[in-house]
């Protein structure tokens, strides 16, 4: 049954997903070509357009997936989804994990588009593709020299899990905002819950800054230190509070679990 659920997800989303990816690729490609061929100041304008197209992919995709989750689960289409002989929580997790894979692929695509857009910036600045490749190589080498292995691994984990942070906010808003207490507001329910969740995430991040765990950047590299630091009075610029990220991911896990229960037990279709 899980295979059938995935099949339904692919059929419903793949065309629009590929359209968004292809559209962004077309924008970035044409913008970079224009930046290389056109004179100033037009070339600079097109480099900015290429950058916008690059960053649009990993941001637009999760938003679109959140809207799709709402439409396929709580509008008229939701009746077809709920008619499947499988637990609501199973449907929810299939949708979430499938959306996560699409979001992760979008991040990879964004990296590729970012490289193409960087060609435009480099050429406009008087450089060549060879200069860009050398800059990328030097940057990677510097990261390897400065950051210890555990820090590189931690950064990779944070990046790989980050799509869940965005998806959790949209899925939570759609699920909780469609319960009995808010379903009468229509789409206003999910919008209201999203703003409340966003506010909670900002508060959680602020509270996380007080967790006595920090990354300290020095000339020798990066160290993980434990200690109480007043972030409002310290003049140190080389501290990164790890607790901010920890609280964000804890809130994400809570939102995902809460939305799973809501999707399974408290659904209100219109």
From TrEMBL:
Keyword rRNA-binding: no
Source domain of life: Bacteria
Keyword Transmembrane helix listed: yes
Transmembrane residue ranges: 16-38, 44-67, 97-130, 150-172, 192-217, 239-261
UniProt keyword list: Membrane, Transmembrane, Transmembrane helix
Protein name as it appears in the record: ABC transporter permease
